[in-house]
Amino acid sequence: MVSFTVRMSFRPENREEISTILRELTDASRAEPGCISYIPHRVESDPDTIVIYEQYQDQAALDAHRHSPHFALYAVGGLYQRMLVRSVEMLEALA
Known about the structure:
Alpha-Beta Plaits, alpha+beta, about 35% strand, 4 strands, 4-stranded antiparallel sheet, about 40% helix, about 100 residues, single chain
C-alpha cells in the first residue's frame, strides 16, 4: 500500500474555487479501482491550507491516478496553477 499526505496553500480569494476543484477531483479519484482513500481536509487554523490524505493499493495504482484525465484537469490544470506552496509526506503504516 502507498500512503501519503499532500499539503497545499492558496490565496484567500481562491478558497471557493479550490473547494469546487477538490470536490470534482475527490469524486473522480475515489472512483479509481486502485484508490483506497482520498480525503481532502481544510486546516482549521488556516483555511487557505489544504491537506489531502491519499492511499492506493500499490505504486501502479498511484501511477494510474497521476496519469488520469481528471488528475490532469483538476490537479495539474487547477490546483497546481493556483497553489502557493506544496509539500508531500510519504507515510509508512505501522499497524
